Amino acid sequence: MSHPPEEIQAVPVRHPGRWLAAVVVLVLLAMLVHTLVTNPRFEWNVVWSYFLSGRVLDGLAITILLTVVSTAWRSRSCSPWSAWRSGSCSG
After folding, report:
1. What is the DSSP string of the chain?
2. Beta strand segments in 1-91, E
3. pTM of the complete model
4. Domains of the chain: which residue ranges?
5. 11-51 pLDDT, tens per residue?
């Protein structure tokens, strides 16, 4: 006669490498933020004056417009995935 197998006691796997990597990434991120905030050589007033200039804002507006138009165009056209799934193109 065979006996039923014993129940397995599952133990969660530990991931010390992931924790170490997360700590390293957080320390590096904190160092980056500290550098950006405290370093006077970044001259943030100059950065903001260029960033908020008319040409940059016009370029940003055109980029956003093109993104919206291309997304709308793509959603109306027949993608290979939808044609494969349905067997036809209903666009």
Report:
1. -PPPPPPP---PPP-HHHHHHHHHHHHHHHHHHHHHHH-GGG-HHHHHHHHTSHHHHHHHHHHHHHHHHHHHHHHHS--HHHHHHHSS---
2. none
3. 0.49
4. 43-77
5. 888 899 999 999 999 999 999 999 999 999 999 999 999 99
